[in-house]
Queue: 4 jobs
Job 1
Amino acid sequence: MKLLGVELRRIELPLVAPFRTSFGTQTTRSTLLLRVVTDEAEGWGECPAMVDPVYSPEYLDGCVDVLRQFLLPALARREHLDATAVAPALAKYHGHRMAKGALEMAVLDAELRARGVPLSRELGAVRDRVPCGVSVGIMDSIPELLEAVGGYLDQGYRRIKLKIEPGWDVEPVRAVREHFGDEFPLQVDANTAYTLADARHLARLDPFDLLLIEQPLPEEQILAHAHLAKLIRTPVCLDESITSAQTAADAITLGACQIVNIKPARVGGYLEARRIHDLCAAHGIAVWRGGMLETGLGRAANVALAALPGFTLPGDTSASDRYYRTDITEPFVLQDGHLSVPSGPGLGVTPIPDALAAVTVGTEWVPL
């Protein structure tokens, strides 16, 4: 397969409600889509880096720049290209995993469309639908939080995740447990907002029977997470710290986590995500699929990945209407707390032209 050119498309999707985490509040999701054109098929990729480098070192303008200057020219030099060759071809360039992952995703989509193979089958999925959890942002008040959680439970979500930060942690969790009981899995996500000195405070979450606490400490502090795991009963899950199968292996060896959140964009693509899944399965570590407010393109790929056998916990896949009134693809709709895995070739979905045009703020064609 020969790469002929790539379209870089910036889009902006308004959120149905502000989404607040420990690192900021989003009201609009700005993201980057890639459309690769080959001599056999076209494919789509999504780069969910944020506008500012607050979740990770990557940011949207930087992704566009590194794609244009380095990553796309590196692939253009190859006479024959398949998805497994993308990561090796880009390995000389350090970091930029989200940009690399989006490019690999688009090439993989094109390759699988040409072969007539669904992404789920290529990755090794064993289910045709996956259970869905939902991520609930930091609210202005406890009553507002309880109303939001109640609405998601009524919709059928199988797991609730609460974003937390210092000053918004024990009391919100207590309120949710007291109001709704312990009949559903509940977890929290700190997005690196605490330090090891907060261990005694975080131990106050132990009585609430949480499924896990996600990324409580800064991403570089894997050893500190191992210490924290000995000081609290709530299982520690790593997110930002897991950037590759190698970092996952190191974290497991150190005892820094009992659970891993796999985000393909964060680790450089869906093929590396599958390697992390296989590694965790071999070591008895539970995994689940985290979300980054993806459009229907990224959501389709996420659902396909979450159908692999090692994904034993509900992920943050969520239905399209959790974040967007109108998606750029046919919407993913929650049915009995599950989303169906697309069965068509490649991602199994494509953008709806009018919907895509309505949210596009800029396009650039890069001939190769």
Job 2
Amino acid sequence: MQIDLHCHSTASDGALAPSVLVARAHDRGVRVLALTDHDTLEGLDEAQRAAQALDIRLIPGIELSCTWGGATIHVLGYAFDRDAPALQAAIGELHRGRWARAEEIGARLAAKGMPGAFEGARAIQQALGDSGNAPARPHFAEFLVRAGHVGDRAEAFRRWLGSGKLGDVKQHWPSLASALATLVAAGAWISLAHPWQYAFTRSKRRKLIADFIAGGGHALEVVNGLQPAEQVGGLAILAREFGLLVSAGSDFHAPGDWSELGMYRPVPEDLPPLWDRFGPIFTPL
């Protein structure tokens, strides 16, 4: 696909530096890219320089963490004012919360007989490319593999780091309403990230979408990488019912992972794409 509105670099929990990620996206035919690192804008300047050199249009993006209904929810913001005071303040709070969360994950793993997880995860993160942000769960997963506590990263998430597990620390995130208010104040276009990944009943997912709209949300991420086609269909139905725009992206984190830049299932043709609201994205021939 020529448009990818969801990916991550070493500024958060991705494996590639922002400039390397942009070059890879270009090589794979992507011409409109949004870098949406978790709770940080740290990688945008480097990505923008690389995008200009390669004639890629880079959409400023971010994936904010928040809580709703006892679960961690992610919302994607695009084309915002990077200097908006509300956004800068929220990022500062999230930065501190991520460090506290990482330290707590390390302490919890140590209490279960896996010492040195925080320091190990940080070392793995720094080896990928130094970042001022805290190590994230993929860094902890890699540490657990290297330390021999699990066989692979999938097992690390299944046993220790996935939703509802020991390392799923939520209390440092703001509410969904607060995250949405932050993005609205920054003039962002807002999409609800991977709505099918939340382990909700049908009625609870509908309530989430209703609250998302009430808080100022604009779109559903109907397509997230190579998620099952039936999920795309279910989310498309919800987008039509609620009158929402739709977004799509690979949710790329690393080469050889579950997705690739520019690779995701087709978006149903009758749904209005969020990227049309960014203005003309391709120069006519």
Job 3
Amino acid sequence: MENLTNRSFLKLLDFTPAEIEFLLDLAADLKEKKKKGIPHKLCEGKNVALIFEKTSTRTRCAFEVAAYDLGMHCTFLDPSASQIGKKESIADTARVLGRMYDGIEYRGFGQEIVESLAKFSGVPVWNGLTNEYHPTQILADFLTIREHFGSLKGKKLVYMGDARYNMGDSLMVGCAKMGMHFVACAPEKYFPNSTLISLCNAVAAETGATLEFITDPMEATRNADVIYTDVWVSMGEPDEIWAERIHDLSPYRVTQELMDNAGPQCRFMHCLPAFHDLGTTIGRQIQQKFGIDCMEVTDQVFEGPQSIVFDEAENRMHTIKAVMAATLAE
């Protein structure tokens, strides 16, 4: 059994394959207990702070339900409820919260913020999303892949679209760590940065992982086990970016043709929210402006039998629970 007590969970690069596997095993065990109604208050009496500088449905709900299931109380701090980095430095905020709470979650902007919180707080800090990394999402993704395929090693995951930021980066790191076959499929300017690619290639040399960067969607998706995508424009980016992304990334939309090209074994994944129809305000605005009824994935694929996006969304809670339990439980 791996001992992760008092460790922060900031990025997957900080963890060994065995430690990641341990967290996935623990998540699977806690998920089974939850389904069977078996109490698992492993952190009873502890308190955690949830700092959200960027809003989220899944991340907030996952952390709150997981905390309650573990017997903890939590305080939610939205962008208006915290002075972090504005009237009070990150280091000072960390030292205050670390004296009141047993653990701190941060979801927001630069990775340096969550790293600073971990450095100064003296308690475990968990990354709920930064511009650079989204490690709790990757744990949920990998638990979902294990549930559907039995294992991770050697599975081919193709990430379609803008692979330069937290999701593309984190999936590449995770696949490298777990000996998987990672493909970034996008125009070249949307590939991950070369420094991180070098780091991941070094990891892959030890684990047997394969990393590829391909511009042709049909070539990239051949025999894929998972085709994964995300929204084309991230939170906080200006509206004028939409036209550029729609122009550049429309050839990388996940369609049934790509799913069929991969084969019947292939599953579709998305970290959500997804623009697959006109059921959102932004989706309708984009439709009026650009004349398209979906963006990164078609509704046929999203709602189709190969889509496992809601299994994946549920697993956010089980894997986040595992991270908190592993780092806080005595």
Job 4
Amino acid sequence: MNRHSTLAAILLSTGLLGAAAVQAAPSAAAADTAPSVVIVHGAFADGSDWTKVVGILQDKGVKVTAVQNPLDSLAGDVAAATRAIDNQPGKVVLVGHSWGGAVITQAGQDDKVASLVYVAAFAPDAGQSVETLSKDLPKAPGIDHIVADASGWLSLPPADVAKYFAQDVPAKQARVMAATQGPIKGAAFGDKLSVASWHQKPSWFVVSQNDRMINPEAQRIMARQIGAKVTELPTSHVPQQSRPADVAKVILDAVASVK
């Protein structure tokens, strides 16, 4: 019998091993039931757009999943978000950026979703699409710089990523963001939501004051409509890149509110 086996035998015979196991169980159970965060990126981006915030949340002990959206349709992105939600052990704080706001509004109907966090995002109502919602909102200048390929997939040229999408990040970082962006099928913006989970779920909203892709006043209008707790940041369309600690704080507030 080696030293480890002997120690185990002594602990077992004295009942200490059983006690230790019982004491460890609650903390393991607590970890399993703690809220997770699922992040849904927007158009012209992918999950790596959230790397900085993910790291901050993980350092705080929060389990995080960044969804990789196909960006082919509302239904396709909702399905990807729903798979991520289903894979979580307990309640979920669902975060959406830009187009991802429409996705979490629909996917948020899942019973596991406790709350919603919109980051410079669209927040449509049931029966609306991003396209119909946008017609009634102030327009942002970057919208005129989106280009379509022959198959109807939309993207932003690198110079316009730097000027309109992420004007407050270093030029080198903006070039990487342009190279890793996810083109979105243009028709997705016309897909209508069947539900709007913000009617039933508490919500938070990060308004980007210098946003050139979704007009800041449009963001304020949507935040008021959904009754969100609002944080305003002096950022471009990507506060998760330029002010990740501030965005993480909002998400952590939502996590802390989950009962």
